[in-house]
Write a structure and sequence with these properties.
Helices cover 86% and strands 0% of the residues. It is an all-alpha fold.
């Protein structure tokens, strides 16, 4: 009975890690698409100077993307050493997802103090850029009115 519960727990942990991976991939796709929209609108602005609003919406899209991008980088910085070390250790066998998630929950050691500081700086910058993009939106809407 206990073994079955442990197997179900491992399955849930694997599902959680897959969901986490899919979220990172979707965030990366969102990043690429938004940067592409920004550059397309920028090029379109230079072709036709009358479309100033197009550039405004392109830059707004880029600034609204910045918090997501910073969070993406913060999550990668925080998790990549742990995930890569576990994958290297378990190269031939199955990856123990439960151990990876246990490592992620552990407090950061002194060796990783710099990584922890960078992580929190990126989180703070993402929140500030989110606030800034909202201010930029409201100022732009009032300017266009």
């Amino acid at each position: 009975m206990l073994i079955e519960k442990h197997d179900e727990g491992d399955e849930i942990q694997r599902l959680a890690l897959k969901l986490y991976s899919v979220t990172i991939i979707l965030l990366f796709i969102f990043l690429v698409v938004t940067i592409a929209v920004f550059f397309i609108s920028f090029i379109h602005f230079y072709e036709n100077i009358i479309l100033l609003n197009q550039l405004y919406y392109g830059t707004f899209t880029f600034t609204s993307l910045l918090p997501s991008f910073l969070l993406f980088v913060a999550v990668l910085i925080h998790t990549s050493p742990i995930l890569s070390s576990k994958v290297k250790k378990n190269k031939e066998s199955n990856i123990d997802y439960f151990e990876i998630l246990k490592e992620l929950r552990k407090p950061t050691h002194k060796k990783n103090k710099t990584r922890k500081i960078i992580f929190w700086i990126l989180i703070t910058l993402s929140i500030l850029s989110l606030i800034g993009s909202q201010i930029y939106l409201y100022v732009g809407v009032f300017y266009l009115l």
